[in-house]
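DM from R.C. (forwarded with permission)

"hey, sorry to bug you on a friday — could you get me a structure for this? deadline for the figure draft is monday and I only need the backbone to look sensible"
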Amino acid sequence: MSKHNPEESTTESTSLHTEGYLLVGWDPENPDRWSSKTAWTTLVISTFSLVIGFCVWFLVSALASKLNDIGFNLTSGQLYWLAAMPGLSGGLLRLVFMFLPPMIGTRRLIGYSSLLYTIPMFGWFFAVQNTSTSFGVLMLLAFLCGVGGGTFSGYMPSTGYFFPKRLSGTALNLQAGIGNLGMSIIQIAGPWLMGFGLFGITFIAPENSGGESLWVHNAAIFFVPWALVAAALAFTLLKDVPIKANFRQQIDIFGNPNTWFMTLLYIMTFGIFSGFSAQFALLINNNYGSASQLAEAGFANLPQGVTYAFLGPLIGSIVRVLWGPLCDRFGGAIWTFVSGVGMAATLATCAFFLDPSSPDDFTGFLWGMLVMFFFAGIGNAGTFKQMPMIMPKRQAGGAIGFTAAIAAFGPFLVGVALSAMSARTWFIVCASYCVACALLCWMQYARRRAPFPG
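My reply, with the result:
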């Protein structure tokens, strides 16, 4: 164990005490060398920061459906690409952030990340006030929003260092689930914030949408003060644990086959979940809304994506929180398997309601998608319980970061796929992938006498 875990720098005789911001002797598996108050304080502050991060990550999905309304002239393909870019950068940045917890510590990780969130928010605040802003600049700002999703792969391993295995499912899924709520918060709050002047900056002229005033820039600037609060809390209240490892020591996770198996499973759960969450509003608009064949056929009162966009991430995030304790009780593997079966069935069902000929098709599509988000939430909880159970603590932290990094490409891949093929074809592809992942989970983790029960 010690040969492969350089964080084991303390001995059993070391008592728990602090030296500056360092927790000396920290060991969550030993009640005498663990502080529940410190662990839960860390969870609360880092989760607060993570909520802001996910708001930043999905900021573009809240803004994209309004850009043409206020004078931009973007094609549906360009809008898909804008909503997809945070997924690309989020995945790339997660490949960086996954190595940071044992290198810079929890306190600086959370503090500096919270400050980074303000950069894309300020950028979008100014960009939407000028409709001549080029598509290239908008793409750059969309790319910068990926920092909000990238930090996840640093936050989750860091949190794993603070809790014993018996509480890992609850703690990790509380943080991940509540953090994921940022996806819904920005999509709920965004349209509301655009309806009035904010923070005493009413001197900034609202954007015009068909004679209606919209303060689209509000959605970008509202969360800046909260990010600064998160940074202040992190720098003043958080501590670091004595877990250190350089880059070379951390890449041993790639020699563990479970890293790769769990990556495939988390792509199924979070990759599809985040991908369809980011594209949900545009998917509704382009298949059922005012730009679809239904409008051309003369149907009125067609659904608008912005009305429903928040529901998917809201359902998935809440389910992830609720299922954490159930995963601690029954294990994560069986729930990941249930998730794969449920997602495959619902995605296949949704495919039949695409290419609609009647507005009634939307009801079946909407309910199918909402149930899919429910099963995705179960799977997200299950996978994060599995990794701490089947891998050593530091390797589990690294694997959580890596699997989350790869799955974070979901919004990018889904956006590119929807711009390259029909929605029905893509849904069938996703359903087939879920079937394959369910079989993998059953054989490796969920069945009786599985090689790695978790």
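R.C.: lifesaver. Residues 1-13 have pLDDT under 50 and may be disordered.
me: no worries. The beta strands are 17-19, 22-24, 207-209, 212-214.
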